[in-house]
Design a protein that fits this description.
9 helices, mainly alpha, 41% helix
Length: 217
């Protein structure tokens, strides 16, 4: 009898207990947009080893790809802007990161920096639990717009350098040489065929004029 009373009292207590604030807090908009198409091991720390994103031995193809820049210590911290003078979350990101204001994501789709770097404070991209960490970037960031994005997809160079700049020859040789090849190819084709088309048109015009004069005489 006593046990039954205890059980009933416990059930009543559970029915009327108020949930904690953390339990009632609504999910953020960024988390609601998750696709849910990924297994647990795709996003947990340590899964980066499951995917071969960079070859162990550089061959001729990988050696002309984007070169890994020197990683700063702030890339591993919970707050990448810690210690930065005059930093304020109210300032525009492009005031300091001016070279990122012309990226394709910004210029074409008007994507804001905080849509990808959504942590507050903004954690370094190599911080263990950062959404931008390569082990989960495809699921936590890319997949919000690109459904089903894979780790290989997330290796795309978002902040691409100016393909015509000489500095790109060192940081991204493939992009530099491919762009200049197409520029030279297009320029060479136009330099040859535009004068050819003009001269051809003049020849046809002169022949028509001469034909009229010959028929008139």
């Amino acid at each position: 009898m006593l046990i039954r009373l205890i059980v009933r009292a416990a059930i009543l207590a559970l029915l009327f207990v108020q949930p904690l604030a953390a339990q009632t807090a609504p999910p953020t908009e960024s988390n609601l947009k998750g696709s849910g198409y990924f297994r647990d091991q795709d996003t947990l720390p340590g899964s980066y080893r499951l995917y071969l994103q960079q070859p162990s031995k550089l061959d001729w193809l990988s050696s002309v790809g984007p070169v890994q820049e020197k990683v700063k210590k702030s890339s591993f911290t919970t707050d990448a802007h810690e210690g930065v003078a005059n930093y304020s979350p109210r300032r525009q990101c492009t005031e300091c990161h001016t070279n990122h204001s012309r990226d394709l994501h910004v210029s074409r789709m008007e994507v804001r920096c905080t849509q990808c770097h959504r942590d507050t404070p903004i954690a370094g991209i190599y911080h263990y639990y950062s959404a931008m960490n390569p082990i989960r970037r495809h699921a936590y960031v890319c997949a919000k717009c690109h459904e089903g994005a894979t780790p290989s997809f997330a290796s795309y160079v978002v902040h691409e350098p100016n393909p015509l700049a000489m500095e790109t020859r060192e940081s991204f040789p493939a992009l530099f040489y491919a762009t200049w090849f197409m520029v030279i190819l297009a320029g060479g084709v136009l330099a040859f065929f535009v004068p050819l088309a003009v001269l051809w048109g003049l020849r046809e015009f002169i022949s028509v004029v001469r034909g009229r004069f010959s028929h008139g005489s």
